[in-house]
Design a protein that fits this description.
With 242 residues, the protein is of the alpha/beta class. Helix content is 33%, strand content 28%. It has 2 domains: 124 residues, Rossmann fold (3-Layer(aba) Sandwich); 111 residues, Beta Barrel (OB fold (Dihydrolipoamide Acetyltransferase, E2P)), CATH 2.40.50.
Length: 242
């Protein structure tokens, strides 16, 4: 998950950030990146061209560009992200529908109200439908088993046994995938989807497909610890979803 908070009041940003972290912890949801805070719409829009967000909280009343104007700019290029307005007034509630806002939180709001707003965003569905795009080809993250790289070519092995090939450098590819907590590099060029690991055996990840992916000795201890911590969070997440 990737969240942004746009609010010109530092105290309100801090309150929301703390409440979000509490919600994510209780729901056992792993963040791909830290929550990003912006004190105005201009600074957010300067980043937005390069960074994608799943859920964006926008204060309606800010110095400079208004929250509604920010939302309209977002919708020019992104129709998928969830927008939640935070404001001290209900005056713009109707306007929020023009940008397909998911929720309208009136300050001061309670933690329970925030949790209700987040529930409308269907976070589980967001996580299930994430994808990366390579050479204009969208690839669902949940379909990737592992990747390999040799002779300047990237090979992506999918659950349906299909293998996709791309000419791309590791420097271009790694940032697209390694921001997600279920993907980890185990040796140069090989990235595994931890959700597709059947077991850890010797110094290899054995995948559900039967493929064995060697782990570099240099990073074995660190990666083993990360893997078991990830499994712990996954079990908690499944318990919460029941």
């Amino acid at each position: 998950m990737h969240f942004a908070i746009i609010d010109d009041l530092e105290a309100d940003r801090l309150k929301l950030s703390n409440a979000l972290n509490r919600y994510l912890t209780e729901q056992a949801i792993l963040l791909d990146n830290p929550i990003v805070e912006y004190e105005n719409g201009e600074s957010f829009l300067a980043d937005f061209a390069q960074v994608s967000f799943d859920i964006i909280f926008i204060d309606m009343y800010m110095n400079g560009i208004t929250g509604l104007e920010v939302a309209k700019k977002i919708r020019e290029t992104d129709e998928e992200c969830h927008i939640i307005f935070t404001t001290t007034s209900r005056d713009f509630a109707i306007d929020s529908y023009t940008v397909s806002a998911s929720y309208y939180l009136v300050k001061p709001y309670t933690y329970e109200m925030l949790a209700k707003a987040l529930s409308t965003c269907k976070i589980a569905q967001i996580l299930a439908n994430r994808y990366i795009k390579l050479n204009d080809t969208p690839i669902l993250l949940r379909d990737i088993v592992y990747t390999d790289f040799h002779n300047r070519h990237l090979y992506i092995y999918l659950k349906n046994q299909q293998v996709l090939t791309f000419r791309i450098t590791l420097e271009e590819f790694f940032p697209k995938l390694l921001n997600y907590p279920n993907f980890r590099c185990c040796n140069r060029g090989s990235v595994v989807n931890l959700d597709e690991v059947a077991r850890l055996e010797d110094c290899d990840f054995v995948m559900q497909t039967g493929a064995r992916i060697p782990i570099s000795r240099r990073h074995f201890a660190e990666l083993r610890t990360y893997y078991f911590n990830y499994l712990f969070y996954k079990v908690r997440e499944q318990d919460v979803m029941r």
